[in-house]
Design goal:
The structure is a homodimer.
Chain A: E1 28-29, E2 34-35, H1 41-45, E3 50-54, H2 57-70, E4 92-95, E5 98-102, H3 107-123, E6 130-139, E7 147-154, E8 161-166, E9 169-174, H4 179-189, E10 197-204, H5 224-236, E11 239-243, H6 246-255, E12 259-269, H7 280-307
Parallel strand pairs in A: 3-5, 3-6, 6-12, 7-10, 10-11
Antiparallel strand pairs in A: 1-2, 4-5, 6-11, 7-12, 8-9
Chain lengths: ~300, ~300
């Protein structure tokens, strides 16, 4: 049975460090269509302990249905309402202590969602939160269908950092994830005999085609040999998969005192090709794997809370 | 009556410059769930002349319904099917010569969509295409509700360029848009008496909060004075609005020989605040303005084709 980690006695609160927030009479979380003046955020979200985020709104709804089943909290009417009403920028679902939020594709889309999520969790006075990104990715040297627990989220030069522009100037932030949480998830993953779970670095890019050295985008100014060399270098530095959100996700969780992890399944081996051509049913089975692993982890963790 | 521009006799084709495409037996456009082996792309899309792209899938569906009405092409069953079946990454709708596609939030999300759109238009052998981004934005020194036709798409240092990483190395691309098209759209906008249309530079950022000098994100390491100075500098260089996709959109259209424009309505004046607090009904009226302007343009353009 996989461990649920060591518990500490002191509660760990989410911390949105912006000093200006204190002086705001109200805060409207524009892309969630939720606000401090219009919604009772502590009542709605105060009991959240696990936040799972993923690119696709549909997948995040499927996840909440799955978790509801696993935790015996199935909605009597079978309905799981989207808490971000009247906006389709992001979708948000909740069941018991689990919140499931979509983040779209890429760093900026993740960043906007995370700013609002971090503030929401702080306003709701949530403590001891774990936030996990569940996603799909391109693998490097791995059998498609393998789940990768991210050790370090790295940029396109394989550095564990995230660079952004603030007031037009570059600001670099660290992307360290919670090593204990990664180990716990890896251990949970090993309980699933139907797929392999490994730990490795995850490269985050700003584009799916040229940014990931694909040869099948609308533009391509490099050769197959250049591509191969680049992916080989990535592998040598410990990169095992490539996706588009992990660095900013890790940096923002770290800054706000949130324990975070990234769990992505690989849907192809980039050393062997660029196109994602697995049949739809295989793809659907693969994309459930990070969700199943996370479901396993949440159940174990809740059990350990009950025993305390 | 606004002009529909000068026609040239030679057809202008979309050009995905990637030399590797020629050697691919088939191409599966993963995020659209459309492919050259599974779909007859010339039959489905060969007649497209106007492509409108925007962040929200819902808004792009509303746009196709609106255009259908304007062009007298209303679907008999009132249904406008999403052509990107079984995926919720992007949504795509078509009526007559108009294609409407969502691109999500931010540069990477736009970039992935554009790679696949450019290839799709090339495979469909489309010619004389116009692609316009219809969006919302924060204004600088403008009355909320103003529509801005982008003159230059600039980065956070106010330069008309887009920098991306390819094989880990920086590559800088120009972001020139079609000046004639911008003028034609500006002229069309002036026919709408219920809102103002202006031309100005559009700044594209990688984040909605810190990236746009907001004081209400989860993090903020600068003062209100720093913010004001930065926005003032932007204004001085000609920036009139801020959004999150224009530079990569402009760069990719330019590279593929597509005439392109950006039309965004402003939903607040950033010199006066950070929060988007206009009532929902006002917001909905504002977000229709770029669509109405574009509808006006498409009608004029189609009329001018008939007269030729």
């Amino acid at each position: 049975m996989c461990s649920a980690g060591t518990e500490k006695n002191e509660e760990r609160y989410v911390h949105a460090t912006n000093p200006h927030l204190e002086y705001m009479k109200e805060d409207f979380l524009y892309h969630f269509n939720l606000g401090t003046a219009t919604h009772d955020l502590p009542a709605m979200f105060g009991d959240v302990k696990f936040v799972c985020v993923g690119g696709s709104p549909w997948r995040m709804k499927e996840f909440i249905k799955y978790i509801a089943g696993e935790l015996g909290l199935v909605s009597p009417d079978g309905e799981y309402p989207n808490l971000c009403e009247e906006t389709d920028r992001y979708a948000m679902y909740k069941i018991g202590p689990v919140l499931s939020v979509s983040h779209g594709i890429g760093v900026p889309s993740m960043s906007v969602m995370m700013h609002e999520l971090i503030k929401l969790l702080q306003y709701a006075q949530c403590s001891d939160i774990i936030v996990v990104r569940l996603g799909t990715s391109g693998g490097i040297g791995l059998k498609p269908g393998t789940v990768v627990v991210t050790k370090q989220a790295v940029d396109t030069m394989f550095r564990p950092q995230f660079e952004q522009r603030i007031l037009g100037k570059p600001v670099v932030r660290g992307t360290e994830l919670d090593a204990d949480l990664a180990d716990e998830l890896l251990e949970c993953g090993k309980e699933h005999s139907e797929f392999e779970t490994i730990i490795g670095n995850t490269m985050c890019t700003m584009d799916f085609y040229e940014g990931q050295a694909r040869l099948d985008g609308a533009f391509c100014s490099y050769t197959e040999e250049d591509k191969q060399k680049y992916l080989d270098s990535a592998y040598t530095t410990g990169v095992r998969n490539i996706e588009m959100e992990s660095t900013v996700f890790a940096a923002m969780c770290k800054l706000s005192n949130i324990r975070a992890a990234v769990l992505c399944v690989t849907v192809l081996d980039r050393l062997k090709g660029d196109q994602v051509t697995i049949p739809r049913d295989v793809f659907k089975r693969f994309e459930q794997r990070p969700q199943n692993l996370m479901g396993n982890y949440i159940k174990k963790k809740l059990l350990s809370y009950q025993k305390m």
